[in-house]
Design goal:
Blueprint lengths: L5 H18 L4 E10 L4 E9 L8 E8 L1 H8 L7 E12 L6 H11 L3 E10 L4 E10 L3 E2 L3 H19 L2
Antiparallel strand pairs: 1-2, 2-3, 3-4, 4-6, 4-7, 5-6
């Protein structure tokens, strides 16, 4: 019988919650990826979603990763508490490269001090559109017992895209 890893269990929690929200028409899932990287012997799962409205809205991508040391440590029984990293990216396209500092501060308040928030702005030529990417990364490993933290991240992500959609 297959013994699921911490990664597998956290993935099921995240994926199930997001798809339940999609079924309830709270969000729309736009992409999903489930990868095993044989070069680094790591696992990665990501799911992307947006608000179910007609206007273009920001898109969120939540990525769950388990690196080699965590995965092998768990499988070999050498780690007592294996965990995963979580990265969140929020993408939006704007007509301007300007950064709203108040908006960035509001996003920091939503996510709190446990997440490192970075903003990247790139220009698309010749359309002269600007791609804003808000990147958040957990400063701690998410353990199997921390499934509720993943649910909170989905809620924070939905709050973030609602805030960005109000601009």
């Amino acid at each position: 019988m297959f013994d699921p890893t911490t990664f597998d269990n956290l993935k099921v929690i995240l994926e199930g919650y997001v798809y339940d929200l999609d079924l309830d028409n709270v969000i729309v899932v736009t992409d999903r990826s489930d990868l095993v990287n044989l070069a680094t012997m790591s696992r990665s799962f990501s799911i992307s979603f947006k608000l179910p409205i007609e206007n273009p809205t920001p898109t969120v991508k939540i990525q769950l990763e388990m690196i080699h040391e965590q995965l092998s440590g768990e499988l070999l029984g050498k780690l007592e508490h294996p965990g995963c990293r979580v990265k969140i990216k929020i993408y939006e396209v704007k007509e301007s490269s300007s950064i709203d500092e108040i908006l960035v501060e509001r996003l920091k308040r939503i996510w709190g001090k446990s997440y490192d928030l970075k903003l990247y702005v790139t220009q698309q030529i010749p359309e002269n559109r600007f791609h804003h990417q808000y990147s958040l990364e957990t400063l701690m490993l998410v353990l199997e017992v921390d499934g509720e933290i993943l649910l909170n991240m989905v809620e924070y992500a939905m709050d973030s895209i609602k805030l960005l959609s109000q601009e």
